[in-house]
Amino acid sequence: xxxGILYSRIRKDEKLLLNELRxxxxxxxxxxxxxxxxxxxxxxxxxxxxxIVVDRCLSTSRSLYATRFLDSYGVPxxxxxxxxxxxxxxxxxxxxxAEADIPTPATEVAFTTxxxxxxxxxxxYPCVLKPVTGSWGRLMAKIDSRNAAEAILEHKETLGHYxxxxxxxxxxxxxxxxxxxxxxVDGEPIAAMTRSSDHWLTNAAKGGExxxxxxxxxxxxxxxxxxxxxxxxxxxxxxxxxxxxxxxxAAEGAxxxxxxxxxNHTVEFKALDAATDxxxxxxxxxxxEAKAAALADGGDENxxxxxxx
Amino acid sequence: MPVRGRVSAxxxxxxxxxxxxxxxxxxxxxxxxxxxxxEIIDSPVTGTELEVIxxxxxxxxxxxxxxxxxxx
Lengths: 309, 72
Fold this sequence. Notes:
Chain A: Belongs to the RimK family. LysX subfamily. Chain A: InterPro entries: ATP-grasp, ATP-grasp_RimK-type, ATP_grasp_subdomain_1, LysX/ArgX_preATP_grasp, LysX_arch, PreATP-grasp_dom_sf, Rp_bS6_RimK/Lys_biosynth_LsyX. Chain A: Residues 94-289 form the ATP-grasp domain. Chain A: One of its GO terms (cellular component) is cytoplasm. The structure holds 2 protein chains of 2 kinds. By secondary structure, chain A is α+β, with helices and mostly antiparallel strands. Chain A has 3 domains: 2-78 and 284-300, Rossmann fold (3-Layer(aba) Sandwich), CATH 3.40.50; 106-171, Dna Ligase, domain 1, CATH 3.30.1490; 178-268, 2-Layer Sandwich (D-amino Acid Aminotransferase, Chain A, domain 1), CATH 3.30.470. Chain A has 10 helices and 13 strands. The longest helix of chain A is centred in the C-terminal third of the chain and has 17 residues, at 280-296. Chain A starts with a strand and ends with a helix. By secondary structure, chain B is mainly beta. Chain B has one domain (10-62): Rubrerythrin, domain 2, CATH 2.20.28. Chain B has no helices and 6 strands. Chain B has a 3-stranded antiparallel sheet, with no helix packed on it. A 3-stranded antiparallel sheet of chain B has the order 4-5-6, with no helix packed on it. In chain B, a hairpin with a 2-residue loop joins strand 5 (49-55) and strand 6. Chain B is globular, with a radius of gyration of 12 Å. The chains are: A alpha+beta, B mainly beta. The interface between A and B is medium-sized, with 27 and 15 residues.
């Protein structure tokens, strides 16, 4: 197949993917979105005759626009722009999860510092304030007191981009020192790991330690539902274990349930590839091959699941 | 404008590496021979992130700074 890779930076994740595609004899067209122009009817990017394009843009804004343009030309692109639109915005992400009856942390959005302070006080302390867009745990605040809340809100109001004036306030989930990252393709888990840290932020990008994790039936069900809720594709679904106290031995697991706090649409997988026995890039390319084959047969995304079966 | 290294890359006797000019210090550095255009490597001299701009010939440039919308 002929595969396009939208990118602006080749990370280890993209390198793994490129190597796997080439080893299987697929033709790869690397598309550096920084060098291309996207018109209403066509683009300077070499997308003609591509069987499928994979969005690996590091920049969310570029990802959202580039996929939208390619989709408008009729170029098959994963993930779909609609999925990116939901996943790139934490408020839309939370709404999609809640609308699908997926357990997700209680969340309120407010547009002024006064209203945000009321939301924070209603949650009580600690609670969490997040930017609606953003990654790698940046600009996340665990708020322990009213004094801290007032200071953070004033800073965000004074210094922030307009998006920082959309105050996304969330309950603090007392997780057992770790969360769970699942890489899934159209709802089917490929690999899962825990990310552990003494810090309240456990992101791998923040230095959280990673370890392979076996999904139980409930977690698997939630991953599938979360994927459906945002439109499917190759996704990073993040869950927290509920009912396991922070002081409990995390290795014992045995969560009563899970809460899904986020679904990521341009998922990094190098940490999963290293932490688990799964050949993650191979599984991703398996999925891309099935997806491209279904498209070539005139199928749609739903038929890809059958091709995977 | 990012700093760009002069074009000066040669294969070393060890075919697993290339030599190229570090755009920050001007020193010759070794980089993996299987680098990709667009790939980010760390300068072995300064630790600065460098982007591979081209392969034939190899040109390195100081990588863009982290931006707010980068990430997953």
